[in-house]
Amino acid sequence: MAFSTYIARYFYVYAAAGGPLLVFVGLAQRIEGFWLYEVPAVVGNEVRGGRGWAPLVLAALARYLAPPLLGLAGAALIAAGNPWAVLLAVTFLSIPALLLARNALAFTIPLLVVLGLGAVLLNGSAEQQAFAAVFVVWFLLIAGTVQTFSIPAAKGSTEPLPRLTLIPGVVWRLLWVVVAIVALIVGAQLLLRPGYGIG
């Protein structure tokens, strides 16, 4: 159990790194690359790139908002009867991450995602694809929520936002906790209650 939790953290920090990467891509910002670090590291990932105040603030926000919000988006796709799209999106987004990886761990984790989910996409039955998509979504929702509660203990993990915005770190931590909990509740409703819709 402890080993699986240890391994799962690497996939969480990869998902968290995906937030800033998506922000920089969406804003057409230059990306220097990203790094994933061993589990004892404070944050676990580093993404370099972006210029200007707004891209840096949005990227810092996305680091902790990305896993639960991506999980919520995946739950909505599954509730709409399209788990295949979840696997396709995760696999497709992980391919360019291989090119942006700047250390061995940052290359290995997206490679495992591409190989694992790619195999399910190409060779899995509809039931296997649905199971894999639901597993990915639950992982993002639950891990995103659990990790937000550990942020206050992670010294320095919220430093960029208070420095860039002059808003205290405790406010950002509260925001991440609220978003993660809401995403978990709504995502669980989407997954567990057929016909449940947002709004």
UniProtKB/TrEMBL annotation:
Keyword Transmembrane helix: yes
Keyword Zinc-finger: no
Keywords: Membrane, Transmembrane, Transmembrane helix
Transmembrane segments: 6-28, 69-98, 104-123, 130-150, 170-192
InterPro entries: Peptidase_M50B-like
Coiled coil: none
Protein name: Peptidase M50B-like protein
Biological source species: Actinomycetospora cinnamomea
